[in-house]
Amino acid sequence: MNHHASDARGIALLPLEVKTGPKIGDDTAPGEAGTFEGYGAIFGNVDRDGDVVEPGAFAESLKARMPVLLWQHDTKAPIGRFDEVREDEKGLYVKGRLSMQGRGAEAYELLRMGALDGLSIGFITREATRDAATGTRRISKADCGLGLRYGAGLAFYGA
Predict the structure, then answer these.
(1) Ordered mean pLDDT values, 10 residues apiece, the chain (159 residues)
(2) Strand pairing category for 12-19 and 152-154
(3) HEC sequence for 40-85
(4) Long-range contacts of 26-33 (CB under 8 A, 24+ apart)
(5) Quick one: which of 90, 91, 87, 96 has its CA closest to 152?
(6) Kind of pairing, strands 152-154 and 69-71?
(7) What's the confidence (pLDDT) of residue 126?
């Protein structure tokens, strides 16, 4: 099983693929500046806190609302939007666009440089079981980005 950083609040840091489209004002390069994609959660992964997200854990909450794209989980700092958030066979896939103004442009440049290379996702656990022998918590239902305190965003550090 894979191991990725996360904390007790359900915040995990996973690598992103950055689409380095045209620079601002450059209409000749292919792609769209500020786009990125990756996984906010990998199903079956045991993180360093001993949590495992099960397939289908986010399905209900994603039907209700799209998560908000935040800078460092700061609800006063939206930096773009998610175009797609869905569960697939691997995990919670996300695709989004950063604003090419303010913090969004800063985040995009840091992604391109490799200084910022992960997606941190917050969620509220609704249903889970814990293995008494290993301590592993299996999360079967969670709200992904349903409250203003919770969302997905770019962050420098995983917990």
Answers:
(1) 45 45 40 79 84 94 88 83 93 89 88 75 88 95 57 49
(2) unpaired
(3) EEECCCCCCCCEEECCCCCHHHHHHCCCCEEECCEEEEECEEEEEE
(4) 32/97, 33/100, 33/108
(5) 96
(6) parallel
(7) 92
Q: Tell me how far CA of residue 144 lies from CA of 71, 109, 114, in angstroms.
A: 16, 26, 26
CA distance 151 to 11: 10
The token pair at 87 is: 């569960």
pLDDT for 55: 97
In order of 38, 47, 128, the CA distances from 86 in angstroms are 11, 20, 20
- What whole-number distance in Å separates Cα of residue 48 and Cα of residue 25? 42
CA 90/CA 23 separation, integer angstroms: 31
CA distance 150 to 1: 26
For Cα atoms 19, 15, 116, give the angle at the middle one, nearest 5 degrees.
70
